[in-house]
Amino acid sequence: MRHPALLALPLALSACSTTGDGYPSLLPRPIESRDAGEVIRPDVIATPDAALDSRISERVAAAEKIATRFRALALETESRVAVARGVAPGTDSWLAAQVALADLNRARGETVEIVTALEETAAERIKAGTPPYPALDAAIATLSTAAAEQAQKVQALEDALTS
Fold first, then answer.
1. Is residue 133 a contact partner of residue 49, using CB atoms and an 8 Å limit?
2. What pLDDT is attached to residue 16?
């Protein structure tokens, strides 16, 4: 026997050929078949709150009154600024325009106070874990826009007086 290794070869190969029971399955494992996407939770709907609705409507009504007064003051301030344009600071017409601008800015500040109070209410709701209240969010958005427009008007009149 020249090659005893050749005789041992069939014996060695038979040891490698076993049934498939010892191998892992190639089928997907349970962890691989689960959904890895984000969990979608339905939006929580705020329950109606009569007291909050009442406070919102009171604040919106107050802001509307302030807006009406602001428009009247803006017309008066525009006329005073037009008279005071180009005159030296400290003159009577310049001082009258400055006083009118201060009154106008005070009215704008009242609108900002209302927006701030509504935003504080929204922040308290968030801290308490209650869902957003659509009427409150809408009032904040509307009044914030009005306050921004009022601020632009005041700034434009101040710029007109200084130019």
1. yes
2. 53
Residue 140: is it exposed, middle or buried by C-beta count within 10 angstroms (0-12/13-18/19+)? buried
- 44 Cα distance to chain centroid: 18
Tokens representing residue 48 in the block: 């109606």
Task: Say which residue, 124 or 22, is predicted with more confidence.
Answer: 124
State whether the Cα torsion 89-154-108-78 is positive or negative.
positive
CA distance linking residue 28 with residue 113, whole number of Å: 61
Average of per-residue pLDDT across 102-109: 96
Residues 6+ apart with CB under 8 A from 104: 70, 73, 74, 77, 153, 154, 157
